[in-house]
Design goal:
Elements (H helix, E strand, L loop, with lengths): L8 H9 L5 E3 L2 E7 L3 H18 L4 E5 L3 E6 L9 H13 L5 E2 L1
Antiparallel strand pairs: 1-2, 2-4, 2-5, 3-4
């Protein structure tokens, strides 16, 4: 598989403008989702896993405070944010129940 290319600050800002609630945290994109329950949060993570596997791009996922899921996306082999991170962020947003994403 070809190595991904780290995006410039300008490209990252353009990509963030197309997403809702995602933020840049140094070399990663992050977003926190609040689900209706612990079970809902666990199911949300379970929905992300097969998509991440198909893309061969695995986010850091944290289930905390009972029903919150924090997601961190970065492309380790590129040393920062790549188009792969934006592609996965958009797919994750489509999986989330309405109102789950927090800005």
């Amino acid at each position: 598989m070809a190595k991904s290319t780290k995006l410039s600050r300008g490209k990252i800002e353009q990509g963030l403008a197309k997403l809702s609630g995602w933020k840049r945290d140094h070399t990663a994109l992050t977003k926190e989702f609040t689900l209706s329950s612990f079970t809902g949060a666990a199911r949300f993570i379970a929905k992300i896993a097969p998509i991440a596997n198909r893309m061969d791009h695995h986010p850091d996922l944290q289930l905390h405070r009972y029903k919150r899921v924090k997601i961190l996306l970065t492309t380790h082999d590129a040393g920062g944010i790549t188009q792969k991170d934006f592609d996965l962020a958009a797919k994750i947003d489509k999986l989330a129940p309405p109102g789950a994403g927090r800005a």
